[in-house]
Write a structure and sequence with these properties.
Number of domains: 2
Structural class: alpha+beta
Strand order of the largest sheet: 3-4-5
Distance between the termini: 48 Å
Shape: globular
Helix content: 25-40%
Bound molecules: zinc ion
Order of helices and strands: HHHHHHEEHEEE
Largest sheet: 3 strands, antiparallel
Number of strands: 5
Number of helices: 7
Strand content: 5-15%
Radius of gyration: 18 Å
Length: about 160
């Protein structure tokens, strides 16, 4: 349940309250330690709390869209033998692993990221074709080479190999 005011005033408590019921075997002290390890600033605590207030299933879904801070929190908790909470899986191979990169808002493991450096191949958000991505805002959708707004002036972010 979203409680925006507590996201601002009690983000740490809100995070612990979201994690505890997701994995009842975890002791509160373990959760608190993991939260403190991952979110060492008020801003991070609030981002984490806001994400969990919006969708507590992020802890258990394993979806590649899971935000980085939540992935880090889950990894801090992993030594405690989790049964329900699960880290996000790589968007390409559906394997768990450290997800080093974000591609199109979804997380990707190191091996897949390495294979796409220079020429990431994704479905273009504009034309739907899977092509080399020619450019993309930091948080925006990918755009295929053929569908950019100004093909004559745009320079590719990743050089062709
Ligand atoms: Zn991968």
């Amino acid at each position: 349940m979203a409680m925006p005011s507590r996201v601002l005033t009690e983000p740490r408590e809100l995070i612990i309250e979201a994690v505890a019921p997701a994995e009842p075997a975890l002791k509160i002290g373990w959760i608190a330690a993991a939260v403190d390890q991952v979110a060492d600033t008020r801003a991070k605590l609030r981002r984490l709390a806001a994400a969990l207030a919006e969708d507590a299933d992020l802890l258990t879904s394993g979806r590649p869209e899971v935000p980085r801070l939540i992935e880090l929190l889950i990894r801090e908790l992993q030594p405690h033998e989790l049964t329900r909470i699960t880290p996000p899986r790589c968007v390409r191979w559906d394997r768990p692993g450290k997800l080093a990169r974000v591609v199109d808002g979804r997380r990707m493991c190191q091996a897949c990221a390495a294979s796409t450096v220079g020429k990431p191949r994704l479905s273009c958000a504009v034309c739907g074709k899977t092509l080399e991505v020619s450019g993309r805002d930091r948080d925006g959708p990918p755009a295929a080479s053929s569908t950019g707004p100004s093909p004559k002036t745009r320079s590719p972010r990743w050089p062709a190999s």
